TrEMBL record, chains A, B, C, D, E:
Subcellular location: Cell inner membrane; Membrane
Record function comment: F(1)F(0) ATP synthase produces ATP from ADP in the presence of a proton or sodium gradient. F-type ATPases consist of two structural domains, F(1) containing the extramembraneous catalytic core and F(0) containing the membrane proton channel, linked together by a central stalk and a peripheral stalk. During catalysis, ATP synthesis in the catalytic domain of F(1) is coupled via a rotary mechanism of the central stalk subunits to proton translocation.
GO terms for MF: lipid binding; proton-transporting ATP synthase activity, rotational mechanism
Gene3D superfamilies: F1F0 ATP synthase subunit C
Positions bearing the site annotation: Reversibly protonated during proton transport: E59
Record's keyword annotation contains Plastid: no
Cited SUPFAM superfamilies: F1F0 ATP synthase subunit C
UniProt-recorded name of the protein: ATP synthase subunit c
HAMAP family cross-referenced by the UniProt entry: ATP_synth_c_bact
Family membership noted in the UniProt record: Belongs to the ATPase C chain family.
Coiled coil, from the record: none
Membrane topology note: Multi-pass membrane protein
Length: 75, 75, 75, 75, 75
């Protein structure tokens, strides 16, 4: 990589920011899911399915972002 | 890429910021959806459909943003 | 692109910031919509239409911003 | 690594940001899980399973991000 | 280490950020666990196990991040 190696800086910061987004997002969903299971244990399956659909969507964007950072890191 | 390689920096930071937006947004929707399912288990299908419509809209913008970052990263 | 390549930096960061705005905005709307559906399941169609109108407006601005970032990235 | 060693800076900051995301996310889930267990002790297994699924998803993204930072640090 | 020694900067900032994440996360879990034990003393064992699982997951990511910072500091 020519230049000052700014891509390496971007890879590191971007990887960290992506984990912040995914962590807070999935954490938020799952916190409500845990509270919901505690309030309505008989709806556990529905709540868990809802949580996993959302978590998978977040996970997809996050992994895409991480792959971009890998591309930058390995350049 | 000519210059100092600032585009690589932008690709990394942008990818991370996009994941923050998508993660917090989808996380917020899904948290309310999980709470709603716990409160009204018989409305699970309606709530989940509402959640998926919104998550798909967020996902669309996020993936568009990630593709821009890929363009910058592979330049 | 002449200069230091600052446009590439702006493209990446701008794309990420646009997703933060769209994600948090649509997420906030849809979270309230999911709660509303849970509280009044018979108003699902009205709530969902309201949500989609708002989400489409947010989506429009976000995609416009992303296109500007694409223009910068492809320069 | 050529340049000013900006990748090392990115590795350190990125590793730290990733821990912030994972820590707050898993912490948020587990806090709600602990409250849920206190409120409905008989749903402990369901709540704990929900928590572990979400924590594993967060952990996966976080470790991926940390590995990117290791790549940068060892370059 | 060639360059300006930015890796040392990254090691220090990263180690600090990692402690922020782990501290707030584990603190959040343990606060809820303490409240839960106070509300339901007979569920102490379940609550404590839930807390320890989550704290161990956070601890794992945090220690990984700290090791990266050690690598940078000893370079």
């Amino acid at each position: 990589m020519e230049g000052l190696g700014l891509g390496y800086l971007g890879a590191g910061i971007g990887a960290g920011l992506a984990v912040i987004g995914a962590g807070l997002g999935i954490g938020n969903v799952a916190a409500s899911a845990a509270e919901g299971v505690a309030r309505q244990p008989e709806a556990t399956a529905d709540i868990r399915t809802t949580m996993i659909i959302a978590a998978a969507l977040i996970e997809g964007v996050a992994l895409f972002g991480e792959v971009i950072c890998v591309l930058l890191a390995l350049k």
